[in-house]
Amino acid sequence: MNLTRRQFLTYSGAAVLSLALPGRGQAQAVRIPVLLYHDLSIHQGEEETVIPSAFATQMEWLYGMGFRAVSFDGIDSLDADSMGRAVIITFDDGPASFMDHAFPILAEYGFKATVTVIGQKASGVTSSHDPSLSWDECRFLVKSGIVEIGCHTNALHVWGRGPSPALTLAAFNERLGKDLAAFQDRYRRELGRPASVLAWPYGRYDRTSIEIAKHEGFRYLLTSNRGYYERGGDRGEIPRWPVNHDADLPAFRKHIERRT
To answer: Burial of 133 by CB count in 10 Å (0-12 exposed, 13-18 middle, 19+ buried)?
Structure first.
């Protein structure tokens, strides 16, 4: 029997993983890792920047161990065994590097991902040192069937990292409804339907923010709080694990394997 390397990874990984998964008859809850990426680049700009080869290694490990990356909507259709092998991959900021470095690998493995874009940057308001996916690229990615485009606000990704943010949370909420409505309007014109996923810029939000987002039609609200997501859990505060440049493979594996 002649096996390709990808087939070998699939068969061997599934066999190994089946030994570690809870049995069908157990009532143990399965926690799903939601991974948070930003930029992929060989240039270490910020702590969130991951080297493309490290991302490739992480995805190959997941694939080889029998894991599958699914969409948020796809969680409810998984059976118990598939739940134990599920991860969710997200990218914030809609980085242009996603097209070059992430998408080919995800397509190779059949992994799904959610990319949240900043509306004004997808519309061309960007800088050469921080390029963003365009709406044309977003349409291409959506047509692939493996990428969902979400929202990272339209023009409110404005908080800095210092002690004095550009907006207070109250001022952010005052502008949020109009901002998200503008994003949804552009999203419908570009992609033909409303967006369902929203990631909070810099992870800042409160209960008022959540209610505003739900009113504008968002069903999955992504935080920067560390933790795991469970089917049937609170879609209004979905925790994620940030994968930064210092997340080596042992740390990555530890996070995935602690899901149960």
So the answer is: buried
Spell 205-215 as b/e; 16+ CB within 10 A means b: beeebbebbee
Alpha carbon 167 to its chain centroid, in Å, reads 25
Q: Is residue 63 part of a domain?
A: yes
Neighbours of 45 (CB within 10 A): 12
Q: What whole-number distance in Å separates Cα of residue 68 and Cα of residue 61?
A: 11
pLDDT digits (tens, 9 = 90+) for 129-179: 678 999 999 999 999 999 999 999 999 987 655 555 668 899 999 999 999
- Whether 10 is in a domain gets the answer no
Tell whether the torsion through CA atoms of 195, 161, 156 and 204 is positive or negative: positive
Residue 117: C-alpha distances to residues 25, 173, 193, 236 (Å): 41, 19, 15, 19
Report the candidate in 30, 16, 40 with the shortest Cα–Cα distance to residue 133.
Answer: 40
Number of domains in the chain: 1
Range of the domain at 116: 30-257
Half-sphere exposure of 168 (CA within 13 A, CB side): 3
Could you tell me which of 150, 232, 211 has the C-alpha nearest to residue 183? 150
Residue 253, domain CATH = 3.20.20.370
In a domain, 69, yes or no: yes
